[in-house]
């Protein structure tokens, strides 16, 4: 802290320093006190509605399984972080156990991000290798991949926190023997597992899917035009041609929607996760006004990172008409559903887009 001297200038600088530090602390504390309540109030119902809507739309497939897992871990991460925070803040006993349990929100956030990676992998195989999807992406393999990731991260985080974390003076800290590892190594491991590896994977898969869609568009159009449904007579040929043209148009609309949603998911993940990566890699300040600014940055990056677990529902709702229709069918009364169906029929007659299949939206994620 700045030392107070007798000169008027130094006293004024010290006064300004204290005033600015109090302002930054007040903002940081306000964010820390309330943002999880807001995100839980929005994200928990949203993720529950995502699970209910998806499970009532069609039978379980690898795509629906991963999307359901993503919604489950997103909601669980928000709830666990709020509960652990409240328990540590108000508890007077068993603090050592609670400090070890700090790994639970981090574990759930990491698994949620990797479920998003699995969704992108499924979309990549579906678009770039459609003929191999049947035996490459099966329900059994999907269950095994999810179980391996969940078990692996659970054992890893529980072991690290169980060995290194403890309570000291009503505050969670690490044992002195592990202080160097925690400060110099752990932040790199955590940042890579939670942010960098998922982001690089999602970005790379998104670029590959866009290229795959662009390269396969011409082949798909050619195959549809040479479909086996064509007949030799003139009227039959015209009818088959019209059907194939509609299929081509629908496939192209689906491709544009998939591309938009994949790019949107990558951009959202970048925007909301990158500040956390920058914060984790910054050298820590121990005093001065920079300490309070860094503390505020820490609260902002936690806010942005946790917000990714409440966004997926809204991406599904605003970009997938079938998801939106199914949700309205669940939550609305019978009269509202009739009115909604009438409006959909009118929109169909005027040439608006058809409903999007659920298996084409499962690349969205954080």
UniProtKB/TrEMBL annotation:
| Record's keyword annotation contains Transmembrane | yes
Q: Which residues form a coiled coil?
A: none
- In the record, which residues are listed under signal peptide? none
Residue span, G-protein coupled receptors family 1 profile domain: 46-316
Record's bilayer topology term: Multi-pass membrane protein
A GO cellular component term found in this entry reads: plasma membrane
Coarse class of the protein's main subcellular location: membrane
**What does the UniProt keyword field contain?**
G-protein coupled receptor, Membrane, Receptor, Transducer, Transmembrane, Transmembrane helix
- Protein name (database record): G-protein coupled receptors family 1 profile domain-containing protein
Location of this chain's protein in the cell:
Membrane
Q: What InterPro entries does the record tag this protein with?
A: GPCR_Rhodpsn, GPCR_Rhodpsn_7TM
Where do the TM regions start and end?
34-57, 63-84, 143-165, 185-210, 260-282, 302-319
Q: Name one GO molecular function term.
A: G protein-coupled receptor activity
């Amino acid at each position: 802290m700045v030392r107070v001297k007798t000169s008027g200038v130094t006293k004024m600088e010290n006064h300004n320093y204290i005033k600015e530090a109090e302002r930054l602390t007040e903002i940081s504390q306000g964010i820390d006190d309330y943002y999880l309540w807001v995100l839980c109030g929005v994200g928990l119902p949203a993720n529950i509605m995502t699970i209910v809507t998806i499970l009532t739309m069609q039978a379980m497939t690898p795509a629906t399984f991963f999307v359901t897992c993503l919604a489950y871990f997103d909601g669980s991460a928000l709830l666990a972080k709020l509960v652990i925070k409240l328990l540590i803040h108000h508890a007077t006993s068993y603090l050592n156990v609670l400090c070890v349990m700090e790994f639970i929100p981090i574990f759930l956030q990491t698994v949620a991000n990797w479920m998003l990676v699995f969704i992108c992998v499924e979309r990549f195989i579906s678009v770039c290798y459609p003929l191999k999807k049947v035996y490459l992406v099966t329900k059994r393999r999907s269950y095994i991949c999810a179980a391996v990731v969940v078990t692996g991260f659970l054992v890893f985080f529980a072991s690290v926190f169980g060995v290194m974390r403890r309570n000291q003076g009503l505050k969670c800290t690490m044992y002195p023997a592990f202080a160097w590892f925690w400060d110099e190594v752990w932040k790199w491991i955590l940042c890579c597992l939670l942010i960098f590896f998922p982001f690089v994977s999602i970005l790379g898969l998104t670029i590959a899917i866009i290229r795959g869609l662009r390269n396969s568009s011409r082949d798909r159009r050619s195959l549809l035009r040479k479909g086996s449904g064509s007949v030799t007579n003139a009227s039959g040929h015209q009818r088959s041609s019209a059907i194939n043209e509609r299929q081509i148009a629908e496939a192209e609309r689906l491709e544009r929607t998939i591309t938009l949603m994949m790019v949107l998911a990558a951009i959202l993940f970048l925007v909301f996760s990158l500040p956390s990566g920058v914060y984790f890699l910054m050298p820590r300040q121990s005093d001065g006004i920079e300490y309070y600014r860094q503390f505020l940055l820490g609260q902002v990056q936690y806010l942005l990172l946790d917000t990714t677990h409440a966004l997926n529902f809204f991406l599904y709702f605003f970009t997938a008409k079938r998801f939106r229709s199914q949700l309205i069918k669940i939550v609305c009364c019978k009269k509202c559903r009739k009115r909604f169906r009438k409006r959909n029929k009118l929109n169909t007659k005027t040439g608006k887009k058809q409903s999007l299949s659920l298996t084409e939206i499962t690349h969205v994620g954080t």
